[in-house]
Amino acid sequence: MKLSPLGDRAVLAYCADERAAVEFAATVRIANPSWLFDVVPAYASVGVFFDADVVSAREVLDWLDALTLPSADFGSRLNEHSRAFTIPVCYEMQLDLLRVAEHTGLSPDEIIRLHTSTTYTVYAIGFVPGFPYMGYLPDALCGVGRLPSPRVRVEPGSVGLTGKQTGIYPLARPGGWNLIGKTPLTIVDVASGFFPLRVGDQVRFDRIDETRYRELEGERLVSSRAD
Fold first, then answer.
1. Tally of domains in the chain
2. Do 101 and 112 reside in the same domain of the chain?
3. For the chain, which has fewer Cβ within 10 Å, the N-terminal or C-terminal residue?
4. CB-CB contact of 183 with 155 (8 Å)
5. pTM
């Protein structure tokens, strides 16, 4: 693991892979030193933010360097206590299934089957508040590039994919991912501070029809497994 300062109030840790980053972040959170402000994992790196009024960057670097890393069974124990979400998706509400089908050589039904048969990990939150970057897609769905020109507006709840990742647009924004469906659930409410998804969470998608979409529309996302 490599550590380096990130400005004067954070340290950035570069880990071996995504799983190591999630475990390292959890270890820092569990230790919870008095100077800790926040821990922000993003794929294979972790930002550790601290109170510069009470501790120096050098002290934080030394503390992190001496931190006892997770034991071999930490990953399985972390999985036992991680949160799991099942997110309903209406794949009839799509704009780019045919584009994905053309690129992959798969039928739309096979694309949907593969997309719903995988458990994804949230590896980063960003782009807009609450946008979950989730991986990884089945090999047969990987490699589909972004749209040549981003859409000016992507509707909230739109489920997209590109490269090896899938994600959900929580707010109306421009976007260039391939849209293969839409969830009726609210996954972000900025005004009320509702951000249910966080790095390390497990997500599966469940296919629904348009009738069920209308029944669930506007409900909030809740975890199917507690911390």
1. 2
2. yes
3. C
4. no
5. 0.82
